[in-house]
Specification:
The protein is mainly alpha-helical and about 150 residues long. Bound molecules: fe (ii) ion (2 copies).
């Protein structure tokens, strides 16, 4: 509805914090790269989901800009910028532990979105977060399906 630095800083966490859309994009892409020759079905699923997370990044970047803050890949801690790091990615060793981490990441992202929905009074942002949460539930379903198939 209007520029708001506090809201932008909350959305930066979802966009580029430790558990964030950019971490999901990079994690799913890495899992795709290493699983491609082992399990093409799961690898392709992870690539597709990473594209959806990229779209989430775009919607959050646009919103952060409208709130008056640049969407660089950093969050604020005591007014200090902390840039995104490749150490936030769970790289993993096997297909099943990668999928387990990917599912855990989706649940954690939903928990953060719910918390931020409570703390942001702007109805447009609440609605945007609701739409993203819907996608994250769908990702959990997709990941659970392949987990059941390959991780008995
Ligand atoms: Fe997402
Ligand atoms: Fe997701």
């Amino acid at each position: 509805m209007a520029p708001n630095r506090q809201y932008a800083e909350l959305l930066l966490e979802d966009y580029t914090g430790m558990i964030s859309e950019i971490t999901a994009v990079k994690q799913y892409l890495y899992h795709y790269f290493v699983l491609k020759s082992i399990n093409p079905e799961v690898a392709d699923l992870l690539e597709c989901v990473s594209l959806v997370e990229m779209h989430h990044m775009e919607m959050l970047a646009e919103t952060i800009r409208l709130l008056g803050v640049s969407p660089r890949y950093r969050v604020f801690r005591n007014n200090q910028e902390v840039y995104w790091s490749g150490t936030y990615v769970y790289y993993g060793l096997s297909l099943c532990d990668m999928l387990a981490a990917d599912i855990a990441g989706e649940w954690a992202a939903i928990a953060y979105y719910r918390d931020h929905q409570q703390r942001i009074a702007d109805p447009y942002i609440k609605e945007l977060l609701e739409r993203i949460i819907l996608d994250e539930y769908h990702h959990i379903k997709l990941f659970n399906d392949v987990m059941q198939k390959y991780c008995k």
